[in-house]
Every structure is written in C-alpha cells, then in structure tokens.
Amino acid sequence: MIFNIQRYSTHDGPGIRTVVFLKGCSLGCRWCQNPESRSAVPELMFDARLCLAGCTLCQEAAPQHIERLSSGLVIHRERLTPETVDALRDCCPTQALTVCGDDRTASEIMAVVMRDKPFYDRSGGGITLSGGEPFMSPALVHTLLQASHQQGIHTAVETCLHVPWRYIEPALSDIDLFLADLKHVDSVAFKTWTDGSAKRVLDNLTRLARAGKALTVRVPLIPGFNADATSLRAITDFAADELGVSDIHFLPYHTLGMNKYQLLNQPYLAPEKPLDDPMLLDFAVDYAHRKGLTATLRG
C-alpha cells in the first residue's frame, strides 16, 4: 500500500531521486506531518472547500455512509469498510473527496522508478523508500531494493526504525544509505510523544552502526519534546559517541501538514506554531560541530 510516488526529489538522499511513500507506521508521533501515512489501509480525505453544493455522486456511491445535511456533507467514518472506501475512489469530480492509499505491485512501482534512470545516472541519485514506515512492509521493501540494485540504482530508506530487527536485516545488503530518525534518547519522553519504545529505535540504530551501514541521523526539533539544549546534547552525544556517524540533520518543526488532520477528521495534538528559535538552532549546529559531526539544517 503506497500513498505517493514523488519524482525529481532532491531532499531525500543524494542526487535526483524518486521517493516511494508507503502507508503504515508503528508510531503515533503527535507532530506527524503525514497523518495519512499512519494507517496501512486506504483512508478518506474530505476537503469541504471543494465540495459542490447539490452534488450527490458520493452519496450514490455510498448511501449508507454519506449524507448531505443543511450544514454540509457528513461522512460516517465509523461505518466505512474497505469496499466502501474503494467505491468512493473516483466518484468526486472536484477531488473534495479523495482516497489516500493504493495497492501497487513491486513491478508497477519499479516501472515508475525506471522512467528516470538517466537522471539517477547523471546525478548520483536513485530510489528512496519513505512513509509512514517502509519496514512495516518488509517483503515489498526487500523486493524493491533488490530490483533497484539489479538495475544499478542507488538505494536509500527513510525510517523511524521502530520495527523488529528481523524486518530490517534481510534488506541490509541492498540498502546504500539509511536516513534514520533519532527523535529522543529519553524513553519516557519518547513514549509520551510517539507511543513507541526508544529502546527499540536505539538498539536498531546501534545494530546498523555495527554493521557498517552508511547512516545519516535526522532529528526533528519539536517544541516541548526535544527542542531544548539538554535533549539536543543527549541526542547528539548518542549519534557521535555511540553510533559514530558523521552526518546529522536537524529538521525544525513546521505546521504545513496541519490541514491534513482536518481532512481526515482527526485532532491535531502538536504545537500550533512552527519552531522559531534561532539561538537553539545555532546551538544545535555548533554543538554537533564540536562533536565532530557535519550538521545540516533542513526545512
């Protein structure tokens, strides 16, 4: 199950890349800017601003699940089934109602990836698997990475690493670069903000480092969670001293994905303002440099 294939990306690994976004994640990060990626099944997204008054096409496609009241369209999401969601996939002419999530075979995905093989060859680019969490679909990930290497394509995976090691290990030999999140080293803070286990992530990071894999650490900077000097020191120390990485990317918190929660009819539980703390960003980069790391601020 994927929810997007983005071609000509230059921010998800070296060179020009095709990024394949897989649905499904084992974390519930409050600040997630791709909430449509969390569930491993297709989901309805509804933008009332695009809905045509008087149109009944979605009601006709799912009469037991959608009704139009004087206040607007009402979707009874608790009643939805996979069959109903699929029936609504192409019914809306304005795309007010869309379905996020599409089953694709590895061959279908690779057909898209191969369109830009000349660009990869010229720029040193390739394929990046992202999400969600790609390793929630370990068999598909392994197949895509093997197929890419067979075609001489550089491979990268963007991952939170919150999965069992057995999901990762079979694909190790076909992954050229890990772009791995290191959100926090404190287990209580990690659990509170992500519903996950920091130990699982730290253990997987350590295993990757021991395996000698190329690893870039990515740190989302979230107000109230880890956007403070104490947390950043601990995170950077772990990256430098325990993992021995050379590159760390800091990703200041933004709210560009906030509207997606409304489209999914989900609450937004993260801060409602972007991170605006130049002094903290300067500290993060300076401290990383003092630890011998190459630090990058990414928008």
Task: Briefly say what this structure is.
With 299 residues, this protein is α/β, with parallel strands linked by helices.
Account of the 3D structure:
By secondary structure, the protein is an alpha/beta fold. The protein has 2 domains: 2-35 and 102-297, Aldolase class I (TIM Barrel, Alpha-Beta Barrel); 43-100, 2-Layer Sandwich (Alpha-Beta Plaits), CATH 3.30.70. It contains 11 helices and 12 strands. Helix 5 (138-150) links the parallel strand 7 (126-130) and strand 8 (154-159). 37% of the residues are buried. Residues 11-290 form the Radical SAM core domain.
Could you say what the CATH topology of the largest domain is called? Answer: TIM Barrel
Rg of Cα set: 21 Å
Q: Return the structural class.
A: alpha/beta
Q: Give the beta-strand count.
A: 12
Q: How many domains? A: 2
The CA-CA distance between the termini, in Å, is 27 Å
What is the name of the CATH class of the largest domain?
Answer: Alpha Beta
Please give the count of helices: 11
Shape: globular
Largest sheet: 8 strands, mixed
Please estimate the helix content.
Answer: 25-40%
Content of β-strand: 15-25%
Architecture of the largest domain, CATH level 2? Alpha-Beta Barrel
Spatial strand sequence of the major β-sheet: 1-2-7-8-9-10-11-12
Regions with little confidence, pLDDT below 50 for 5+ residues = none
How would you spell out the order of helices and strands? EEEHEEHEHHEHEHEHHEHEHHE
> CATH homologous superfamily of the largest domain, by name?
Aldolase class I
Protein name: Glycyl-radical enzyme activating protein
Pfam families: Radical_SAM
InterPro entries: 4Fe4S_Fe-S-bd, Aldolase_TIM, BssD/PflA/YjjW, Organic_radical-activating, Organic_radical_activase, Radical_activat_CS, rSAM, rSAM_sf
Organism: Siccibacter turicensis
